[in-house]
């Protein structure tokens, strides 16, 4: 019998090749001045750093820094393998669930987290329990 973790990993990873299998599982410092326009919107597409699928197209989400800090688990496929946590407070924010091109959801340690909808890599962010506000960790994404 498969564990819940194995079921989730199989669900997310079936037929989805990773373009960057060795991507880092932790936050990566970035210069966001090149990624944010004058209205604090994303200038570029925001994508999964593991499979490169698009999570948001340009000008879909708002950049927030220093708000709503959260401890997120180290990233993995299925979101449950991370052994350490990282404090994250640099976000791409939206209250529009339809702004996402692709996204997955999972509950990890009583937090509703966001995962890559194609390969299941994450957590890349979190959502409120009423599903009305969504935060993507800006230092956990790629930009194209």
Account of the 3D structure:
The chain contains one helix and eleven strands; from the N terminus they run H-E-E-E-E-E-E-E-E-E-E-E. By secondary structure, the protein is mainly beta. It has a single domain, classed as Metal Binding Protein, Guanine Nucleotide Exchange Factor, Chain A (Beta Complex). Strand 6 (104-108) and strand 7 form a beta hairpin. The longest helix is centred in the first third of the chain and has 10 residues, at 4-13. The relative contact order is 0.23.
Write a brief caption for the model.
The chain has one helix at 4-13; strands spanning 46-48, 54-56, 62-73, 76-77, 85-94, 104-108, 111-115, 121-122, 125-127, 134-137, 141-143. The chain is built from 1 helix and 11 strands, in the order αβββββββββββ. It comes from Litomosoides sigmodontis (Filarial nematode worm).
Characteristics of this structure?
six-stranded antiparallel β-sheet; 144 residues; Mss4-like protein; mainly beta; guanyl-nucleotide exchange factor activity; Metal Binding Protein, Guanine Nucleotide Exchange Factor, Chain A; 1 helix; globular; Mss4; Mss4/transl-control_tumour; three-stranded antiparallel β-sheet; zinc ion binding
Would you spell out the secondary-structure blueprint of this structure?
Layout: H1 4-13, E1 46-48, E2 54-56, E3 62-73, E4 76-77, E5 85-94, E6 104-108, E7 111-115, E8 121-122, E9 125-127, E10 134-137, E11 141-143
